[in-house]
């Protein structure tokens, strides 16, 4: 059986060239590929086009890459937790394409499914529609959106096997499965790595056919953007 296990993540990430388009899984800080992002920061790669639901926070996730000035363009849905992102956007230092969240998800899914375009009502009559084709179907206007694909997809799963089959846990699944399918080269990091054949096929979310490399990560921080607690009783 093919063993896709990677032992030196830094050496693998160092192969990503300047100017590459990269998808990064996660929602907020949930399910982000922590170790891959850290390796990207260490590699010094620049001019990246990053496709991600959000931009992390100032000192964690994609926020580290923004702080290092390694990102040329962000294609995202929500970026409200990152002050450095806001600064770079307002100063014109960073290109940004903001996309309705459902449209972003579908564009990525379409990229993995080999569907070059689709029509959606989201964004019709707004700035999102500028320069895009609009058609009428059954009396309603729809906007044509193109697929999204990437040179590399960096994803995070709970458990995987050496053949690259992946299982996600809870809401940490989010954008990871669709991005795994939409990347030309997909690098997955997992909390648990087992030998091929040990995963129940009925529980696999991403088949190994979509994954080229798998890395067994350890000591995940799993930060929370905003920790909210009830006040203590007097």
TrEMBL record:
Family of this protein: Belongs to the 3-oxoacid CoA-transferase subunit A family.
Nucleus in keyword set: no
NCBIfam families: pcaI_scoA_fam
UniProt keywords, alphabetically: Transferase
Pfam families: CoA_trans
Molecular function as annotated in GO: CoA-transferase activity
Gene3D superfamilies named in the record: Glutaconate Coenzyme A-transferase (3.40.1080.10)
Organism: Thermonema lapsum
Domain of life: Bacteria
Protein name per Swiss-Prot or TrEMBL: 3-oxoacid CoA-transferase A subunit
């Amino acid at each position: 059986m093919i063993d896709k296990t990677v032992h030196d993540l830094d050496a693998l990430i160092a192969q990503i060239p300047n100017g590459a388009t990269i998808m990064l899984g996660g929602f907020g800080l949930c399910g982000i590929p922590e170790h891959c992002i850290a390796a990207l920061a260490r590699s010094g790669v620049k001019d990246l086009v990053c496709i991600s639901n959000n931009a992390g926070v100032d000192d964690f996730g994609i926020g580290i890459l923004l702080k290092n000035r390694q990102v040329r363009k962000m294609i995202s849905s929500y970026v409200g937790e990152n002050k450095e992102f806001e600064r770079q956007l307002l100063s014109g230092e960073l290109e940004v394409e903001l996309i309705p969240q459902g449209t972003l998800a579908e564009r990525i899914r379409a990229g993995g499914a080999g569907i070059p375009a689709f029509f959606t009502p989201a964004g019709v009559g707004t700035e999102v529609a500028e320069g895009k084709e609009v058609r009428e179907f059954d009396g309603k206007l729809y906007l044509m959106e193109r697929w999204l694909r990437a040179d590399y997809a960096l994803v995070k799963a709970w458990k995987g096997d050496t053949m690259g089959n992946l299982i996600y846990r809870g809401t940490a699944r989010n954008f990871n499965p669709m991005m795994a399918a939409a990347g030309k080269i997909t690098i997955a990091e997992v909390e648990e790595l087992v030998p091929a054949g040990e995963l129940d096929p009925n529980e696999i979310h991403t088949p190994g056919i979509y994954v080229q490399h798998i890395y067994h990560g350890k000591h995940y921080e799993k930060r929370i953007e905003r920790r909210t607690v009830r006040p203590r009783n007097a």
